[in-house]
From TrEMBL:
<dbReference type="InterPro" id="IPR016909">
    <property type="entry name" value="rRNA_lsu_MeTfrase_F"/>
</dbReference>
<feature type="region of interest" description="Disordered">
    <location>
        <begin position="316"/>
        <end position="344"/>
    </location>
</feature>
<comment type="similarity">
    <text>Belongs to the methyltransferase superfamily. METTL16/RlmF family.</text>
</comment>
<dbReference type="InterPro" id="IPR010286">
    <property type="entry name" value="METTL16/RlmF"/>
</dbReference>
<keyword id="KW-0489">Methyltransferase</keyword>
<dbReference type="GO" id="GO:0052907">
    <property type="term" value="F:23S rRNA (adenine(1618)-N(6))-methyltransferase activity"/>
</dbReference>
<keyword id="KW-0808">Transferase</keyword>
<feature type="compositionally biased region" description="Low complexity">
    <location>
        <begin position="325"/>
        <end position="344"/>
    </location>
</feature>
<keyword id="KW-0963">Cytoplasm</keyword>
<keyword id="KW-0949">S-adenosyl-L-methionine</keyword>
<feature type="region of interest" description="Disordered">
    <location>
        <begin position="1"/>
        <end position="22"/>
    </location>
</feature>
<protein>
    <recommendedName>
        <fullName>Ribosomal RNA large subunit methyltransferase F</fullName>
        <ecNumber>2.1.1.181</ecNumber>
    </recommendedName>
</protein>
<comment type="function">
    <text>Specifically methylates the adenine in position 1618 of 23S rRNA.</text>
</comment>
<keyword id="KW-0698">rRNA processing</keyword>
<dbReference type="InterPro" id="IPR029063">
    <property type="entry name" value="SAM-dependent_MTases_sf"/>
</dbReference>
<feature type="compositionally biased region" description="Polar residues">
    <location>
        <begin position="214"/>
        <end position="224"/>
    </location>
</feature>
<dbReference type="Pfam" id="PF05971">
    <property type="entry name" value="Methyltransf_10"/>
</dbReference>
Length: 344
């Protein structure tokens, strides 16, 4: 394995070229699609239409409008207090994974139901399956440790005709397990993805919320909670992101024949060395670090596979060769932050 790549200025560039949300929010268009958003829209200090991003209710309403306007999702709602994530960043993750598959498929993103993706910790919001299916036609299995999240995600998938039959939600019965109990027998996944909880404790998560509130100028207001919401299991995990991804890497070895590419978001730069070291010990053949950014927030995808180049091509031929009808050329990918192999 190669030494992990250093973070570069490319990580601070904008959203992926195929991301539908690269420009400013077009509130007049969103309001035509979702008039109910209007009560949350008002001019900001620059005189531009915006919402109060410190308000969970406003953020959820914006998400509803974006999902309806860009992805045709008519029915989407989540219980109070559950995570309503920023959609542009979620779309970026999907598009970079699409590039990863395109790289081994003659530059063409494989599309359609033959491509199967496992979303670990899908949450009540079901955002990754929605975007992945609407953009590329992929099928998804979403897993979560929270029965309420699984129930709500199932309702979202079932109540939108465009998603019915393409998203399956499974309950992870053992809270410490990642893939065990979810990947069944000989079933195959082309990709796995995850946005892990990155705080190490409830106290750390609360401290981060206070800092965010101070930055947003909402300290002491009724909106001083997490603006994107989140249950405890969505925000923190004992040992934090480093422990969670260590466990994920170790479990991935057991699923190396069932899954082509494993991946996870990494929020903290200091998590990377330990994860690289673990993957090297486990014998991962190829490890990639993909830089992403949205505004001032910089994060990374780490993706790895236990299959060598020959095995990857055999997988491709069995499941989705480049001649597959409807494949999408990975246009614009060259202008995005590079997908760099982690070198020895």
């Amino acid at each position: 394995m190669n030494q992990p790549p250093k973070d570069t200025a490319a990580e601070k560039e904008g959203l992926h070229p195929r991301n539908r949300h690269r420009g400013r929010y077009d509130f007049p268009a969103l309001l035509r699609t979702a008039p109910e958003l209007a009560k949350f829209v008002a001019p900001n200090e620059h005189g531009d239409d915006s919402i109060d991003f410190a308000s969970p209710e406003a953020v959820k309403a914006l998400n509803k409008a974006l999902l309806k306007h860009f992805y045709g999702i008519q029915n989407w709602d989540i219980p109070a207090g559950y995570l309503a994530p920023p959609i542009p960043g979620r779309a970026d993750y999907i598009h970079y994974l699409a590039d990863l598959l395109a790289e081994m498929n003659d530059g063409v993103v494989p599309t359609g139901k033959r491509v199967r993706v496992l979303d670990v910790g899908t949450g009540a919001n079901c955002i990754y399956p929605i975007i992945g299916h609407r953009e590329y036609g992929w099928r998804f299995v979403g897993s979560d440790v929270d029965p309420v999240a699984v129930r709500v995600a199932k309702q979202i998938a079932a109540s939108n005709p465009g998603l019915a039959g393409t998203v399956e939600c499974r309950l992870q019965a053992t809270s410490t397990d990642i893939f065990s109990g979810i990947v069944r027998g000989s079933e195959l996944f082309d990709l796995t993805m995850c946005n892990p909880p990155f705080h190490a404790s409830e106290a750390e998560a609360e401290a981060a919320t206070r800092r965010k509130s101070q930055n947003l100028g909402t300290t002491g207001s009724s909106a001083a909670g997490p603006n994107f919401g989140g249950q405890s299991h969505e925000l923190w995990y004992e040992g934090g992101e480093a422990t969670f991804t260590w466990r994920m890497a170790n479990e991935s070895l057991m699923q190396r024949h069932n899954c082509l590419w494993f991946s996870t978001l990494i929020s903290k730069k200091e998590t990377l060395p330990g994860l690289y070291k673990t993957l090297q010990k486990l014998g991962a053949v190829d490890v990639r670090t993909i830089g992403m950014s949205q505004g001032q927030k910089v994060s990374r995808i780490v993706a790895w596979t236990f299959q060598d180049a020959e095995q990857q091509q055999q997988w491709r031929q069995r499941r989705w060769a480049a001649s597959q009808p409807g494949g999408h050329p990975a246009k614009g990918a060259a202008a995005a932050p590079a997908i760099e192999p982690a070198a020895e």
